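Consider the tokenized backbone below.
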């Protein structure tokens, strides 16, 4: 009888620890991806991609505005600045294309500072502003 009580207590203790460990939820896919997306390399890639194909984007498309000042690491900032200078004409073309779409989720202030966009697999348009 003592052995079975010890076994039961051990089992209950392990179940309690497992339940306690599960109180902290695992990061969602978007949270896990955020650490990858929030880097100067992703911003550089988006800037260098130029004008993205906006076919299918409508004024009702979900828009996520990301300020690149908060994303780029200090050492990556100069590379981002260089890419912005090199892509000036493409950026202006992108802004014009976005103005024509009249997106609900993009303010006039954001529109004037757009530097790149990225189409997400779920249809969201990530708009990088500086």
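A designed sequence for it:
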């Amino acid at each position: 009888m003592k052995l079975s009580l010890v076994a039961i207590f051990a089992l209950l203790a392990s179940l309690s620890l497992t339940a306690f460990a599960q109180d902290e939820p695992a990061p969602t896919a978007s949270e896990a991806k955020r650490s990858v997306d929030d880097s100067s390399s992703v911003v550089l890639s988006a800037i260098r991609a130029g004008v993205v194909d906006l076919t299918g984007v409508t004024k009702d498309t979900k828009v996520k505005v990301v300020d690149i000042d908060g994303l780029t690491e200090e050492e990556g900032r100069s590379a981002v600045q260089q890419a912005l200078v090199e892509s000036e004409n493409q950026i202006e073309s992108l802004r014009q294309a976005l103005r024509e779409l009249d997106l609900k989720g993009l303010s006039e202030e954001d529109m004037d500072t757009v530097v790149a966009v990225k189409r997400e697999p779920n249809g969201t348009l990530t708009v990088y502003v500086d």
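Residues 2-21 form the longest helix (20 residues).
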